[in-house]
Structures are given as C-alpha cells and as structure tokens.
Amino acid sequence: MAAVGRAVANPHSTDLCVLEDRKMSKPGALDLASGLGGKIEKKEVLSAVEKYEKYHVCYGGDEEERKANYTDMVNKYYDLVTSFYEFGWGQSFHFAPRWKGESLQESIKRHEHFLALQLGLKQGQKVLDVGCGIGGPLREISRFSSTSITGLNNNEYQISRGTYLHALGASQELNRIAGVDKTCNFVKADFMKMPFSDNSFDAIYAIEATCHAPDALGCYKEIYRVLKPGQCFAAYEWCMTDSFDPNNQEHQKIKAEIELGDGLPDIRLTRQCLEALKLAGFEVSSVFLNFLQVIWENDLTVDSPIPWYLPLDKSHFSLSSFRLTALGRFITKNMVKALEFVRLAPEGSQRVQSFLEKAAEGLVEGGRKEIFTPMYFFLARKPHSGSAAEAL
Hints:
Elements: H1 13-23, H2 29-35, H3 45-53, H4 63-68, H5 70-89, H6 104-119, E1 126-130, H7 136-145, E2 148-153, H8 156-167, H9 172-178, E3 185-188, E4 201-207, H10 216-226, E5 227-240, H11 249-262, H12 270-280, E6 287-289, E7 292-299, H13 326-341, H14 349-368, E8 372-381, H15 388-391
Parallel strand pairs: 1-2, 1-4, 2-3, 4-5
Antiparallel strand pairs: 5-8, 6-7, 7-8
C-alpha cells in the first residue's frame, strides 16, 4: 500500500548508522542475570513465576481471571521476561515481514519506518507510542520522522530500562545526534486509563502491545479519546486468523502456549479487532485520497517473502540472529541453568526460560498453520466531528 506521507530526512543518518553498529550491542550473560525478575525482589522471583503461570490454561487458569487481573499478570510477565527479550532481540521486541537477503534487524527497522510513513508523520508532531516496551521503536521512529514521541507503558521496570537507554548507556550518543533526547519521554500508566487530555496527539501507534488489553473496545476508545480529530491510529495486532478453529484441540493448545509465553489475557480474531475499532468510532473502511489508499487493514504476514516466524524456527540457522536459533536458545537455556545454580540469577529463572521456549514453539506452529498472526495491520482515522464513540 502506498504511504500517505514522507519522513523528514535526517542529515545525520550516516553518523547514526555507524554509531548504531558500534553502540547498540545486545546485553551479555551478566546483564541477563542481573535483569532477571525486573523490579521483583530476587528472592520473590520463583513465587512470581508460580503466580503468573496459574493465570493460564496450562496451569488451570481461565480467560476471565486473566482479564480481571490483567495489570498484575502483564506486569509480572514483563518483570520476568524483559531481560530475556533484550538478550535475544535487542531493544525492539517485535516481528516483521522480511525480504530475501534482509537481516532480522533490518526488517524490524523497515517495519517501524513503514508505520511512520503510513501515519504520514511530520516534523514537530506530537505522537503517542501505546505500550512502548523499553523504547526501541520509539527512538527509531523519532529519529526517522523528527517527531516528538511519548512512550506509554504500565511496567515500572521497562520504563526504567527505557529511560536509562534513552538518557545513558548505549543510546546516549545516538539520541544526542538525532536530537531525540529532548523530544521524547516515557509515562507510566495503564492504556485502559490514560492520563492525557482529550485530543492531545497528532498520531498514535501501537506495535504488538494492545493485545495485552483485557478489552479491545475499551482500549481503542481511550486511544480515540486522546487522538486529535482527523488524525490516525495505526497498529500491529496479535490475532488469531479466520483459519483458527476453536473446536480444534491442537489449535487451542497453540493458542494457550502463546498466551502463556507472551502474557496475553486472550487472543482476539482479526475481525474482532476491526469491529472494536468501528465501535470506538474510528473510520476503518477503505478511503482513497489522490488515488492513494489512506485507511486500510491487512494481515501483513500473507505477502511476506520470508515467514515471519523463521527466526524462532528450530530448522533455521542465522549468525546475525544466533541467540534466537535452536542452538542459541539451547546455549541460553544451559547458561541460565548455570547462572541460577551459582546464584547469579534468581531461583525461577529456568522456569521463565521454559515458558518462553514453549511460546516460541506455539508461535512457529501458529504461523505454519496460518492460524495466528503478529502483524494484523490497520490504519484507522478519527473523524473530524460526530462519531459512534461520542454517543456512547
């Protein structure tokens, strides 16, 4: 689909690329060990793992309990897994469509740039990243588009990591050169109850984040409220596709593994997300402007030349994303076991690595069977005036 805008060219792009290769290395084993558990006291990590697991079907939990306690469940999840994510993925925790000959990291950046272009981001705009993680996409999109981005996240540990990486550590020089050290910030808050005034932002996006919401409609209504009239919301959603059969036990097993390994109350169907957007008041039907399609939705996994789940596929090997391969994960598993044995990593760390491994298996099978997508994309617009949401 054609982009509706162009990002402002960054005069320091060469400097950024050189610095990025030099500065943005992934954490090592001791970083992984020290970060395990996040803000949870090290002696309480095993107890937190047990409580988290009990929310899920594999351990006797149910969907309604997960939705009722989504804040506790999702916070425990990200306290427990963030250091693993950084160790394996770097600073951007998401999948991406991938071209032949393209590295995983290159595809992730392109995926973030695509979102900025679809939103038509322009220099000086005020943008909201809903569920920003530790701020990898936020920093990339801000550099690319010269926009001011607020990262919203309800997990204290991820906010602290994002703030640290933003102001210090590996990204300090990158942020200073790009100018994003002064234009971006983080806010700790629940995206179901945002602490922003109505009509505050020029654009809003979410990258594989609002899938943690217990209620899509409630989440989208909050996004609608804080978005300025006439402006757009774009997202990549985790969804079950129309090929998912709720009466198929294997399909249900795959869904449960993904929910357990990724901190999800439920996984909605693509059409449920679309319906929730409409009920929230967004325009989501195809709209064309000067022959360009500016409002649209599509599963981006369908046309990806390389399967999105390839980095997690045990049959795949890559030096550039080695830690995600079967051998890399085997090494990580044994490293975590050793770190826990010598008490550099807290008790329960192996349990976390285990349910993340189970999630990887579920994601690969869900992708192969085409019953799950992490890239249901939509670009929706808040009307200039009058909407269904305003009447609710």
